From TrEMBL, chain A:
Residues 150-195 form the SKP1 component dimerisation domain. InterPro entries: SKP1, SKP1-like, SKP1-like_dim_sf, SKP1/BTB/POZ_sf, Skp1_comp_dimer, Skp1_comp_POZ. SMART domains: Skp1. It comes from Arachis duranensis. This is SKP1-like protein 11 isoform X4. The lineage of its organism: Eukaryota, Viridiplantae, Streptophyta, Embryophyta, Tracheophyta. SUPFAM superfamilies: POZ domain, Skp1 dimerisation domain-like. Pathway: Protein modification; protein ubiquitination. The keyword tRNA processing does not apply. It holds the Pfam family Skp1.
TrEMBL record, chain B:
Transmembrane segments: none annotated. It comes from the Eukaryota. InterPro entries: F-box-like_dom_sf, F-box_dom, LRR_dom_sf, LRR_FXL15/At3g58940/PEG3-like. This is F-box domain-containing protein.
């Protein structure tokens, strides 16, 4: 019912509203929009979108509410008014497109599915983090930069499980640490002091 | 991995928590060592983490802990929970706490310290927000010049403290929100042991294994109160009716008073208790927002007393979870199910027996009729080890009647839990 009735209602009111609100022409002509969206735009809806720009200069449009809920950095930008909806996009020079897409994916899923039961959410998260080490680090850097608490905790938990209970040589292999940076004397000293940790 | 800033590695190592894992990780490479020294904020020494802690002598363990703590800086959460250690020496513990107290926010410590160290006094005046202390003692609290300005959560287990010091301690914590007392050793100054706590910021109180004459709690903002395994003569809560969650488990109290205004009560959970039903009912009858009511393994003072569904339905229209387990007798069944008001919002019904009788299935049926929107039914039963023939027969009849019942109530999801 709703959409049709709203449409009729709006199309009755539209002429009055247009003149009252002085809809600004875009690009020299009044853009023809579906009535529902005009109404929603006038009401300042949660469907308001913001633009995020990756390091590869690719632009991603995402619901403002989704990013504001998850990213402290973006929330602060919107709140203190430094982001202008009409014109600007948020440049994220340290996040590449592939990672940014994944981050947006995470935030969107968790906003829309926050009422799901715990098991389903955890299963989705496990699937989400099924990436290679490089992908994981990229996600970690992005989540750290954007200050997305729950994604950070999730990634920390995963990395922690990779380290827990392992010995030093094993950890070096897993994380591809080729040069440990200790002097030969330091390394020998460590091995003598904690032989069973190696 | 080399790209990760050292602070992020510090966070990863902090998530490891267990000291053994952190030490191993820090020996992996120089960057991780640096992260451990400068950016580690959480460290835990727990006998659960590493069985080899048990093989170390106490002095060796003290040295290990000291070396590890002193290699860090800016530690915010420290946890030393050792089950097999008799005691740590005071000088070592003082060293650990003095080294970390400027930045420490969370401290979990359960080892006896000899001679006694007033841990709260030593580090509570800085940034400490959470203190979980066990097997130590607290004495000489002076609220005039000793305040714990950041302490939000205090948990004392097997701690020796006088009633007076306990009273003073709570008033010395202007921001305290959660208080937990487990098996405290309350020194008596006179014949009557009275604990009187007063705090306008306390939200949650949990008391276990305490035996007192009088316990008076004055808390204008309290939301959650849980008493377990206590023997009290008088328990009085003085507040502004903010209580939301009230739970009693295996408590004997002669005079119980939770105040006049109980409109905000949402959860009431009473188990292993002898109820004087009219008195109890009077206490909670004005709680029209009640969402969960649980009366489990309760006994009634007067054998003829009965919990009747009519009263529950009229007083608690918002009730969504109802759990009842008590001895269902003939008179109780008939009178308890009188009336026709329905529990419209109840979606989960839990019913249990300790000794099964043939009336139980009638009781289940009677209650099912009164819950038109029920989604889940959980039956808890205790099955005795030595099953007499009679008991087996009753259980068989019960099973048969449950199957018949569930055929009629197909929208209800049944679960059975036997122990």
């Amino acid at each position: 019912m709703e959409l049709l009735c709203i449409r009729q209602w709006i199309s009755g009111l539209l002429p009055t509203w247009l003149s009252a609100w002085c809809i600004k022409p875009v690009g020299g002509a009044l853009v023809r929009q579906e009535p529902e969206y005009i109404l929603l735009a006038l009401m300042g809806s949660p469907l308001k979108k913001i633009m995020l720009c990756s390091s590869e200069k690719e632009i991603f449009s995402v619901e403002e509410q989704v990013m504001v809920q998850h990213s402290v950095i973006i929330n602060n930008m919107i709140e203190d008014g430094s982001y202008n909806h009409e014109e600007s996009k948020i440049p994220l020079d340290c996040v590449d497109s592939k990672t940014l897409k994944k981050v947006i994916d995470y935030c969107t899923h968790h906003t829309h599915h926050h009422n799901d039961n715990q098991e389903d959410l955890e299963a989705w998260d496990a699937q989400f983090l099924n990436v290679d080490s490089n992908g994981l680090y990229d996600l970690l850097m992005a989540a750290n930069y954007l200050e997305i608490r729950n994604l950070l905790d999730l990634i920390y938990g995963t990395i922690k499980n990779m380290i827990k209970g392992k010995k030093i040589d094993e950890i070096r292999r897993i994380f591809n640490i080729k040069d440990h940076g200790f002097t030969p004397e330091e390394e020998e000293q460590n091995r003598k002091e904690y032989p069973h940790f190696y | 991995m080399d790209q990760l800033p050292v602070e992020v590695i510090g966070n990863i190592l902090s998530h490891l928590r267990a000291a053994r894992d952190v030490v191993i990780a820090s020996a992996t490479c120089k960057k991780w060592r640096q992260a451990c020294c400068k950016h580690l904020h959480t460290l835990s020494f727990s006998s659960n983490d590493w069985p080899l802690y048990r093989d170390l002598t106490t002095s060796r363990l003290e040295i290990l802990i000291t070396q590890t703590i002193f290699q860090t800086s800016g530690l915010q959460a420290l946890s030393i929970l050792m089950e097999d250690v008799d005691e740590f020496s005071a000088s070592t513990v003082i060293a650990w706490l003095m080294y970390t107290r400027e930045t420490l926010r969370h401290l979990y410590y359960n080892v006896k310290t000899t001679p006694n160290v007033n841990i709260l006094e030593l580090c509570g005046r800085h940034k400490l927000e959470i203190l979980d202390l066990a097997h130590n003692s607290i004495s000489g609290v002076e609220p005039n010049y000793q305040r714990f300005p950041c302490l939000k959560s205090l948990s004392l287990s097997y701690v020796s403290i006088s009633a007076l010091d306990l009273n003073l301690l709570v008033s010395a914590c202007p921001k305290i929100e959660a208080l937990e007392l487990v098996n405290p050793e309350i020194a008596m100054s006179d014949a009557q042991v009275t604990v009187e706590l007063s705090s306008s910021t306390l939200k949650s109180v949990y008391v276990e294994a305490i035996s007192l004459d009088k316990f008076i709690l004055e808390a204008d903002g309290i939301e959650c109160l849980h008493l377990k395994d206590c023997a009290l003569e008088v328990f009085e809560l003085i507040g502004k009716g903010t209580l939301k969650h009230f739970k009693i488990d295996d408590v004997s109290v002669i005079h119980l008073d939770i105040g006049e205004t109980v409109e905000n009560l949402e959860i009431v959970d009473i188990s292993n208790f002898t109820i004087i039903w009219p008195k109890f009912y009077q206490m909670i009858s004005k709680s029209s927002n009640l969402k969960r009511l649980r009366l489990w393994d309760v006994m009634f003072d007067d054998e003829d007393e009965v919990v009747d569904v009519e009263t529950i339905a009229t007083c608690f229209p918002q009730l969504s979870h109802l759990s009842l387990s008590y001895d269902v007798r003939d008179g109780a069944l008939h009178y308890g199910l009188q009336g026709s008001s329905c529990l419209e919002n109840v979606v989960v019904l839990e019913l249990g027996w300790t000794v099964i009788n043939s009336l139980f299935s009638h009781w289940v049926e009677g209650l099912l009729k009164r819950c038109p929107n029920l989604k889940k039914l959980i039956i808890h039963g205790v099955v005795s080890e030595a099953k007499s023939e009679e008991e087996c027969l009753i259980l068989a009849n019960f099973t048969t009647s449950m199957i018949e019942l569930m055929r009629r109530y197909t929208h209800v999801d049944p679960h059975f839990k036997y122990e």
